[in-house]
Structures are given as structure tokens and as C-alpha cells.
Specification:
Number of domains: 1
Number of strands: 10
Shape: globular
Radius of gyration: 16 Å
Order of helices and strands: EEEEEHEEEHHEE
Helix content: 10-25%
Distance between the termini: 43 Å
Oligomer: single chain
Strand order of the largest sheet: 5-1-7-6-9-10
Strand content: 25-35%
């Protein structure tokens, strides 16, 4: 067994916020990459995933809201990006705060409430899987551990 630091994982981490109203979730349209996503982004060095989620929500849609609980923790490495740990947090109900949404106009240029049944039309498959499971976790009051967007270790939500 080696004690070399090169042997230890150094994953990139990202955190996002799931806002839900009934059967709809809030998506934002990013100005780069795969476009549609939930509010969120990469965790900075020395920053916790929850703090990153709060910062990204504030930067992208102008709301300063702490996450209320963790819904999903997803290990989703990619050959082109290396190890990745992705967190989806419940950010509570928006209510009157919806009127306060202010897009940054740089990273995000549009937001929309999307029925969970239509998520696959907006998101790339690995993200769609993660959001479907986060939605179910929110409804069931649980937290799920995922690998590549799929529940493992007995963490399957009840049907």
C-alpha cells in the first residue's frame, strides 16, 4: 500500500439547488455547456458543498437562501473530467421569493418551471437521472446515494 498523495482521489465537486412546486422543478438555462440545469456549480477550494450551493444560487438567480437538506450525493466520474462528486440540495419553497429572481445575465439567461415528466426533454441523461431521484427523495423525505445517477447500496426510493 502506498502513502503517495497521487493515490488518493481528488474529485471535482459541484452542488446545485432543487426548487419544487408540485410536479415542477426550477431549471435555469446556462449560457455555456449543456445549457439547461438546476441553479448551482462547482465548489471552490476550501468551500463546503452547502456553502457553494448557497453562493451559486445567489450568483445565478439573485436569491440568498441556505439549503435546507441534502437530497442526493452522486459519484459520477467522467473520463474527460476525472472523479466528480455532485450534491443536490433541497432549497425549500420559493413562494413570494419567485418575484425576487434576478438572473445574472452572464452565466444564466433564462429560468423556467418544468414538469418532472418533461425533465428528460431539457437535461442530458446523467443529469436527468440525478434530478428525477432528487425529486423523489424530496417527496419521500430521504437522502439518496447515487453512482452515475443511479441509486446503490440499498438507497432505492420506495415506489
Amino acid at each position: 500500500m502506498s502513502d503517495s498523495l497521487e493515490d488518493f482521489a481528488a474529485p471535482r465537486m459541484a452542488a446545485g439547488a432543487l426548487f419544487i412546486i408540485g410536479d415542477r422543478v426550477l431549471l435555469v438555462r446556462k449560457t455555456y455547456g449543456n445549457r439547461w440545469d438546476i441553479p448551482g456549480g462547482y465548489v471552490n477550494h476550501g468551500e463546503s458543498p452547502a456553502a457553494a450551493c448557497r453562493r451559486e444560487v445567489r450568483e445565478e438567480i439573485g436569491l440568498d437562501r441556505p439549503p435546507t437538506r441534502l437530497l442526493v450525493h452522486d459519484w459520477a466520474p467522467r473520463e474527460d473530467e476525472g472523479d466528480k462528486l455532485l450534491y443536490v440540495f433541497d432549497d425549500g419553497a420559493l413562494g413570494a421569493d419567485e418575484a425576487e429572481i434576478r438572473l445574472d445575465g452572464v452565466e444564466v439567461d433564462h429560468w423556467e418551471w418544468v414538469a418532472i415528466s418533461r425533465i428528460d426533454d431539457y437535461l442530458i441523461p446523467r443529469l436527468a437521472r440525478r434530478i428525477h431521484h432528487a425529486y423523489r427523495a424530496a417527496a419521500e423525505g430521504t437522502t439518496l446515494y447515487l453512482e452515475h445517477g443511479e441509486p446503490v447500496l440499498g438507497s432505492h426510493p420506495r415506489s
